[in-house]
Specification:
Layout (H helix, E strand, L loop, with lengths): L2 E5 L3 H13 L3 E5 L2 H11 L3 E4 L8 H10 L6 E5 L4 H9 L4 E4 L4 H38 L18 E2 L5 E2 L1
Parallel strand pairs: 1-2, 1-3, 3-4, 4-5
Antiparallel strand pairs: 6-7
Amino acid sequence: MKRILVVEDDLAVQRGIREYFEHEGYDVVVERDGAAALRAARRSSPHLAILDVMLPSMNGFEVCARLKNSGFSAPIFILTALTDEQSRLEGLGVGADDYIQKPFSIRELALRVRNAFDRSERVFGKAKAIEQELLKAREIQLSSLPKGAPNVPGLEIFGMMRPATHVGGDY
């Protein structure tokens, strides 16, 4: 089940998002504060985060930047009433994957979330296929090398393989 972290200090908006996404079959973790959002992200490992900007203790831009700097690879959406270009640029500049202005359509937000999950799954699927191909290539490469040194009277032969992570390396 996909987990979504929703960080929103407006309880009505928070409740609406939570109930809609839970009805759609998602596990939803909610927080009202920026610092609590960072702890929740570490604790719950969400597959996507939706951040308001104007939050107590730490704004959503800072939360986004800190998550991205800590290696958080899940998509992050900014959902805010800040509609000016500078705010949009700041949100996208700190690593947000999408910037949605309030008021918003919950159905549009849900579609954007579904599309982000679909993109992530396609990328993960391609990465997994590449990983499998590299492992096959490694096996082929290793099988092309002799298992031991040939026995030639009067000669001592030594060889050593230092493989790279998947393929290549030096012999």
